[in-house]
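Hi everyone, sorry if this is the wrong subforum. Our group has a chain we'd like a structural model of before ordering constructs, and none of us has done structure prediction before. Sequence below.
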Amino acid sequence: MTALAALLACFAGFTALAFAMEKHHRDMTGALPKGRPLGLFKTGGWALLALAVLPLSARFGLSVGITSWIGLLMLGALGVSFGLTYRPSLLPRAGLIALPLSLCAAALAGMS
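Answer:
Right subforum, don't worry. Here is the predicted structure as tokens:
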């Protein structure tokens, strides 16, 4: 459950970073972004990516946790890149669903 929580957080983080880029934002929503939300998406995306390492390092130790985090970053980026390529209109919903699922998985991992 810990790895699933981190993977979902990575997916949500990369989705937020894609929202922060004009081209991907336009592909996902059909409209150009305006003003401040781009900065919020950037900050939120980087924060989610950074926070994804915490449960992994707490569960597996720092060295294995960071190594696992790097692998999960790759998988999260791969999922977002496939979403941007084939179904960009579904990616915002997938990112929004991934965030609470990540929190639920982290809570379940903490219970076990």
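For your construct planning: Residues 49 and 69 are 9 Å apart (CA to CA). The chain has a mean pLDDT of 90.
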